[in-house]
Write a structure and sequence with these properties.
binds adenosine-5'-monophosphate-propyl ester
C-alpha cells in the first residue's frame, strides 16, 4: 500500500478500501451521534450558538452569532463577553469540581506533580496578579518561551485572565527567531525559565532570551521591559537587575485571589507565529469566544471526552497550535484530567510513552504520525511490554498518516479495538475541521474523511469548482467557522492575499486533497512552498534566507523531500561564492561546508529547520522569468528521474546538477 518512503502515492490511495466502523458498544456511549451532522446542516449558525452557550460560561450573552459583513474578517458572538481563564479554571472550582486533577505532570527526570483545578486556580490567580504588578493589562503582548512544564500552562492562562495576548514561542527556536517574534508583536514581557530537561540533561533557555532582548544589530532597543524567569533546573543564569524577575518570587508576592477580566468575544487571545511561503513568519491571531467554542466542541466530540473518567494525553508542545488548542484551552475548558510530559519519547528508554500511558491509565492519546512511524521503527515489542488496555480513542494530527502507520497504531497501540481519529486542521483554523467522529464514522486508514458538523470544506479545481468524487484538487473552506484566524498580526493585506486571493471569497488552506468514490477527503500535503517536517511547519523561503545570510553562500534553494520517518525532510541546494569553491573541490571539504551551514541554520531558526542534506551545486534550475523550479529539485532529492525540463531557461542545468551530485559534496546526519 505504501512506497518505500513511507508516504502514500496518490494513485494508491484509491486502492485503500479498508474501513473500521465503531463497535456497537462504543457507538452507543459516544458523545457525538450521527444526527449532529443533520442538526448542523439544518441551521449552521444556530448550531454554533448552541455549542457556544452549552460549552462556555458567558458573563454577557451574545445576540448575534456571526457577522460576516467585514469578510474575510469574521466576528463571532461579537457582543458577548467572557474570560478564557475563567472558563478553563474558575467555573470548574465554583461547580464543586476543584478536587479534580487538571494536570498530571511528568517531568523528564521523573519528577511529578499533580495539580487540581483548585490549585490551578490559585496559581493562575497569583500569576495574573504578578503580571499586573509588572504593569501589564488588556491587549498587551507577552512572549512565552518555556519548556513543557505546568508553569507554561499557567502563564498562558494568566495572560488570558488579565486580557493580555500571549505569543508562545517554541523553546526549540533560536534567539534570532525569538527576537523577530518579540519585535513583530511588540511584546513587553517575556516569560521564560532558567532551562528545561532534554534527553537526560538540563539545557539552558535564559541565554537565548538575554540575546533576543538585547539591542539588535542596528542598535534598536527591544520592546521588552521585564523578563519573568521560572526556576526549573536550578542552573546558574546571568541576571539583569531591574529587568529580570523570578517567577516564584513574583507569585509569592501576589494575592491568592484575582478577578478575571471580562473581555469581548472578539478580544485577541493569542498570537502564534507559523511559517508561510515567504521568509517572514506570520503572526496568526485568534480571538476569544469563537476559538474557545470550537476547541471545546471538537475536543469533546472528536475525542469522545468523558471529563469525569478519562485521562487524556496530547503529546504536543505548547509551542505549537496543537498545544494551544488541545493541551491548554480545549481540555481545560471541558474540565479534563490530562497528562503533561516534558521529555522525549526515548529518554531514559524507548518505552517511556507507554510507561506513562500505563502509569496514569491514559484513555485518549493524541499524537503525530512521525512519532508513530518512529515507534514502528523501534519495534512492537517496546509498547508490548506495557499495559495499554486503558486506551479507548487514538488521535493523529499534523501531517497525512500513511495507511501502514495507521494500521500499526490501531493494532499495536489500540489492540485492534480503539477508534482512530485522523484530524486535519491548521494553526489558522484554530481547531479541528476534518475528522471522523469516533462513534459514527467507519474510519478509513489514511483519510481524514469528513468535515465536522458545522464545518463546510470542499475539494475544488483551478476554477474553484468542486471536483467530482474520485478526483483531486485543492482543499478549501467555503464557510466561516468560529475558531478561524482573525488575521495576521499587523498585516491585514497579507491575510487577504495569503488565504483569500487564490479563490476569491473562499479560504484556501494550501493543501492538496482528493475525494474518493464515497466522497471522503484524503489530504495529500501542501501545494505551496511550505514543508511539513515531523508535523512541524517550515517554509522553504525562511530556510533559504537563513542559508544566504551566511557569507559563504551565493544562492540557495530548499525543498521538502519525502522521508520515511519525518514525512518530509529539508534538502538544500546551495551555490557557494567563488572564493569558497576551491575548498569544495578538495575531497572531503564538502562535508565541512554542509556542517557549517547546518549549524548556521540552527542558529538562525532552530534545530528543527536544519537541513537533513545540503548539496553544493553550480547552478539552480530556473524558468525564463527566474523562478526556481523546486519540482525538479524535489525529483533529484527523492532520487527520481527528473521531470519535464522544457520551461527551464537552460535545460542543461539539471544534467549539471546530477553530475555534481556524483561528487562527494553532500552530507547528511
Ligand atoms: O498540510 C496540513 C498539515 O499540517 C498543516 C498545518 O500545519 P500547522 O499549522 O503547523 O498545524 C499542525 C497541527 C494542526 C496543514 O496545512 N496537516 C495537519 N493535520 C493533518 C495534515 N495533513 C494531513 N492530515 C492531517 N490530519
Amino acid at each position: 500500500m505504501t512506497d518505500t518512503t513511507g508516504t502514500t502515492p496518490l494513485e494508491n490511495l484509491s486502492a485503500e478500501r479498508r474501513a473500521f466502523p465503531p463497535s456497537a458498544e462504543f457507538a452507543a456511549q459516544a458523545n457525538a451521534q450521527a444526527e449532529l451532522y443533520e442538526r448542523a446542516r439544518a441551521d449552521r449558525e444556530g448550531f454554533w450558538a448552541e455549542q457556544a452557550r452549552s460549552l462556555l460560561s458567558w458573563s454577557t450573552d451574545f445576540s448575534e452569532v456571526l457577522d460576516w459583513s467585514g469578510a474575510p474578517v469574521a466576528r463571532w458572538f461579537a457582543d458577548g463577553r467572557l474570560n478564557a481563564c475563567y472558563n478553563a479554571v474558575d467555573r470548574h472550582v465554583e461547580a464543586g469540581r476543584g478536587d479534580r486533577v487538571a494536570l498530571l505532570f511528568e517531568g523528564e527526570p521523573g519528577d511529578t506533580r499533580e495539580i487540581t483545578y483548585a490549585q490551578l486556580l490559585e496559581e493562575v490567580s497569583r500569576a495574573a496578579g504578578a503580571l499586573e504588578a509588572l504593569g501589564l493589562g488588556t491587549g498587551d503582548r507577552v512572549a512565552i518561551y518555556l519548556p513543557l512544564i505546568p508553569e507554561a500552562v499557567v502563564a498562558m492562562l494568566a495572560c488570558a485572565r488579565i486580557g493580555a495576548v500571549h505569543s508562545v514561542v517554541f523553546g526549540g527556536f533560536s534567539a534570532e527567531a525569538l527576537r523577530s517574534r518579540i519585535d513583530d508583536a511588540q511584546a513587553t514581557v517575556v516569560i521564560t525559565a532558567d532551562g528545561g530537561y532534554r534527553r537526560g540533561a538540563p539545557s539552558a533557555l535564559k541565554p537565548a532570551v538575554d540575546e533576543a532582548v538585547g539591542p539588535d544589530d542596528d542598535g534598536t532597543p527591544s520592546p521588552v521591559q521585564k523578563v519573568l524567569v521560572v526556576r526549573r533546573t536550578g542552573q546558574d543564569v546571568a541576571w539583569t537587575e531591574g529587568r529580570d524577575v523570578w517567577w516564584h518570587e513574583a507569585l509569592e508576592a501576589a494575592p491568592a485571589q484575582h478577578t478575571p477580566v471580562d473581555v469581548e468575544a472578539e478580544h485577541p487571545l493569542f498570537i502564534l507565529y507559523t511559517s508561510g511561503t515567504t521568509g517572514k513568519p506570520k503572526g496568526i491571531f485568534h480571538t476569544t469566544g469563537g476559538y474557545l467554542t470550537q476547541t471545546a466542541y471538537t475536543h469533546l466530540n472528536v475525542f469522545d471526552l468523558k471529563p469525569e473518567q478519562d485521562v487524556y494525553w496530547c503529546t504536543a508542545d505548547i509551542g505549537w497550535v496543537t498545544g494551544h488548542s488541545y493541551v491548554v484551552y480545549g481540555p481545560l475548558v471541558n474540565g479534563a484530567t490530562q497528562v503533561l510530559y516534558e521529555g522525549t519519547p526515548d529518554t531514559p528508554h524507548k518505552g517511556r510513552w507507554w510507561e506513562i500511558v500505563a502509569k496514569y491509565g491514559v484513555t485518549i492519546l493524541y499524537t503525530a504520525p512521525t512519532a508513530i512511524r518512529t515507534f514502528m521503527k523501534w519495534g512492537e515489542d517496546v509498547p508490548g511490554q506495557f499495559d495499554l488496555s486503558s486506551l479507548r480513542v487514538l488521535g493523529s494530527v499534523g501531517e497525512p498518516i500513511n495507511p501502514e502507520a495507521w494500521m500499526w497504531y490501531r493494532r499495536v497501540i489500540g489492540a485492534d479495538r480503539t477508534p482512530i481519529v485522523d484530524t486535519w486542521w491548521q494553526t489558522e483554523t484554530g481547531a479541528i475541521m476534518i475528522s471522523p467522529l469516533p462513534g459514527v464514522t467507519a474510519a478509513k486508514p489514511g483519510s481524514a474523511q469528513v468535515p465536522l458538523p458545522g464545518i463546510v470544506a470542499e475539494v475544488v479545481d483551478e476554477e474553484a469548482k468542486p471536483v467530482p468524487d474520485g478526483a483531486g484538487g485543492y482543499l478549501v473552506l467555503s464557510e466561516p467557522w468560529p475558531s478561524m484566524l482573525r488575521g495576521i498580526w499587523g498585516d491585514e493585506q497579507r491575510y487577504k492575499d495569503t488565504y483569500w486571493s487564490r479563490f476569491p471569497g473562499i479560504y484556501f488552506a494550501g493543501d492538496g486533497a482528493k475525494k474518493d468514490d464515497d466522497g471522503d477527503i484524503w489530504l495529500l500535503g501542501r501545494v505551496d512552498d511550505v514543508m511539513n517536517v515531523s508535523g512541524h511547519r517550515l517554509s522553504t523561503a525562511e530556510i533559504e534566507s537563513a542559508l544566504v545570510s551566511h557569507p559563504m553562500v551565493a544562492e540557495a534553494a530548499v525543498v521538502g523531500a519525502s522521508d520515511e520517518t519525518t514525512g518530509q525532510a529539508v534538502v538544500a541546494f546551495v551555490i557557494l561564492r567563488a572564493e569558497h569553491l576551491d575548498k569544495v573541490d578538495e575531497a572531503g571539504e564538502g562535508a565541512d561546508v554542509a556542517a557549517t551551514l547546518r549549524k548556521h541554520v540552527t542558529k538562525e531558526i532552530g534545530p528543527i529547520a536544519k537541513p537533513r542534506t545540503i548539496l553544493v551545486v553550480n547552478e539552480l534550475p530556473k524558468t525564463r522569468s527566474g523562478k526556481i523550479m523546486r519540482r525538479l529539485l524535489r525529483d533529484v532529492a527523492e532520487h527520481r528521474e527528473v521531470g519535464d525540463v522544457t520551461t527551464l531557461a537552460d535545460s542543461s542545468v539539471m544534467a549539471l546538477i546530477a553530475q555534481g551530485l556524483e561528487k562527494p559534496a553532500a552530507s547528511s546526519d
